[in-house]
Design a protein that fits this description.
356 residues; six-stranded mixed sheet; six-stranded antiparallel sheet
């Protein structure tokens, strides 16, 4: 968990320091007060582009220095930080204990999971959004997943550029193509194996849970699967060149979610049912990560209570109690009345950030 969070010229916050407790951290305030910005800052302390997937240059405060900083101290007394310099606004830097580090190294120290209103349409979005969601869940259990994903994508982009030469009458170097396809096979198969193990573990945990206020989700992977990816890529070069993209590999799979209680695809469920499925999935995953790693993830739940009735809100807070550090936002303090008195409560308003 975080014991201190410092923001410098990040989004709407010129300077802010938060000393969160070990359990609930409740941020309230009007829309536009900067609550989600705080959650986004925390999400940047894990590998990836954060909960908004924004470019680094978009995160620096308007009228500020031109760069931004997000720093935190963990309960283990480890200091981690990320940010940009004014003269290199798109180059994100990461530091661990004051030393430069790769962004993927953050996974060794902190696991961060989040649920935002934008994710409510996950089951109606294109498959790429569910793959991104799946990879974030996978990364929480398998920190090396990010390295495999980055190297696979880089090799695939290079291969696609070489294949484009074929459409222009060129003859790309077959040895170089084979080398890139070997890289894609090595990292692609590792990606697929990690995803499938995560799905199996999470599906088993969901199946063990009784039907409650949060619907139980069934999980499966659909689409590409195989063990001979290098051969598939080699034989599919002309096909891939013609369509301008690679048609075999783990980037062609989809996460299929089913409402077990109704035996119905999540994409066909009501908006409320989809929200309940997603929330139940996130909670089960957080519990799985804690059980498998011995380290509870930091949960970021943006506006999570706004569309829950009092019974579901109470059930949510009861389930989250004692599971680790949980950051939640909402416009009304009354939405969090059932949260214990030991929660860290902060109000964001015109006067800045104040404890309540």
């Amino acid at each position: 968990m975080l014991t201190r969070l410092i923001l410098t010229d990040f989004r709407s916050h010129p300077a802010a320091t938060i000393a969160p407790g070990p359990g609930f951290v409740v941020l309230t305030g009007d829309n536009g007060a900067g609550k989600t910005n705080v959650l986004e800052a925390v999400s940047l302390l894990a590998p990836g582009r954060g909960l908004r997937r924004a470019a680094p240059g978009e995160m620096a405060r308007q009228g500020g220095s031109g760069g931004f900083g997000v720093a935190a101290t963990l309960a283990s007394d480890v200091d981690i930080a990320t940010g940009t310099q004014p003269d290199a606004r798109e180059r994100r830097l990461v530091r661990v204990q004051g030393a430069s580090a790769a962004a993927t190294a953050l996974a060794d120290w902190l696991t961060v999971l989040w649920l935002t209103p934008a994710m409510d349409r996950l089951f109606a979005e294109p498959a790429s959004e569910r793959r991104r969601f799946l990879d974030r869940l996978t990364l929480a259990l398998f920190p090396g997943h990010a390295v495999h994903a980055n190297r696979y994508e880089a090799a695939m982009r290079a291969r696609n550029r070489l294949l484009a030469e074929m459409l222009e009458g060129g003859q790309p170097d077959p040895a170089w193509l084979s080398a890139l396809e070997a890289q894609m096979a090595e990292h692609g198969l590792a990606i697929d194996a990690a995803r499938r193990e995560l799905v199996a573990l999470l599906a088993a945990r969901l199946a063990e849970q009784p039907e409650g206020v949060f619907a139980r989700a069934g999980l499966a992977l659909e689409g590409w699967s195989g063990t001979a990816l290098a051969d598939e890529l080699a034989t599919g070069r002309r096909r891939d060149a013609a369509v301008g993209r690679t048609l075999a590999g783990p980037h062609r799979c989809d996460l299929i979610v089913t409402h077990l209680g109704k035996n119905q695809a999540a994409s066909l469920c009501s908006t409320g049912e989809q929200k309940a499925l997603l929330l139940g999935l996130i909670l089960a995953h957080a519990e799985l990560v804690a059980a498998r790693t011995g380290r509870a993830p930091v949960l970021l739940l943006d506006e999570v209570a706004a569309h829950l009735d009092p019974r579901r809100r109470a059930a949510l807070f009861d389930r989250l109690q004692g599971t680790g550090q949980v950051w939640m936002t909402g416009t009304e303090p009354g939405l969090f009345a059932e949260v214990g008195a030991d929660a860290t409560r902060l109000h964001l308003g015109e006067g800045g950030m104040t404890a309540t």
